[in-house]
Amino acid sequence: xxxxxxxxxxxxxxxxxxxxxxxxxxxxxxxxxxxxxxxxxxxxxxxxxxxxxxxxxxxxxxxxxxxxxxxxxxxxxxxxxxxxxxxxxxxxxxxxxxxxxxxxxxxxxxxxxxxxxxxxxxxxxxxxxxxxxxxxxxxxxxxxxxxxxxxxxxxxxxxxxxxxxxxxxxxxxxxxxxxxxxxxxxxxxxxxxxxxxxxxxxxxxxxxxxxxxxxxxxxxxxxxxxxxxxxxxxxxxxxxxxxxxxxxxxxxxxxxxxxxxxxxxxxxxxxxxxxxxxxxxxxxxxxxxx
Length: 290
Ligand SMILES: [Zn+2]
Description:
Blueprint: H1 3-11, H2 21-34, E1 38-45, E2 52-53, H3 61-68, H4 71-79, E3 82-87, E4 93-99, H5 103-106, H6 110-125, H7 138-159, H8 165-181, H9 189-204, H10 213-223, H11 228-240, H12 246-267
Parallel strand pairs: 1-4
Antiparallel strand pairs: 1-2, 3-4
The chain binds zinc ion (ZN).
């Protein structure tokens, strides 16, 4: 038994995820629409934070383990509370993986977290896919997709009576604390992550829902003024557009992706200009959403 396996044995950790009846029903609907199963699993990290651990009771363990051997996927997962992804091999599957290393940040809100990830797969199943980005810009593609998809996901969660605000605010509080502590603007794709965060708060959260909203937006504007026009422009676009119309959805997604890539190009020349957006499945190992 290797050290990781031994650790799991000692922890008696389980990969199993229990869904509420409502979410289980929604999952079945998505699986039927997409004609592929959705696997749910908890992924742990060893105490030193060096190794991801997948318990032996994970469903279709080899398929999930294959993803966890891909560096680009792992990099996204350790930064996220959860990820959803669709792969075509060894067979068409979607997966929702929970990052247990950050469990204390979402433990009280697991239902909202799972519902959010199902929301991404629900959109994909209906043809409202995340951008496809080959060639090393998965991070930019994910954030561009999130800025558009989150508008539709939030609306669907509201319609399903899922309280998503508490989890969201819980993740924004440390983000605000971090902004106060370290005013330096982030570099690389973390700058795009900041833009996505900014757009989400502008487009999806009111002062009543989070009293610190205005302070948060002020701090963003003060620390990343170069992103302010894009944040305001994208928030306006995703709020005003009829995203239920798939042609509109794809056009907005393409524009947001172009905006994001223009920022990435300005920061690091050499980013490809050709992109395709909407209605695609990501290649194996590239996280669809977070
Ligand atoms: Zn998301």
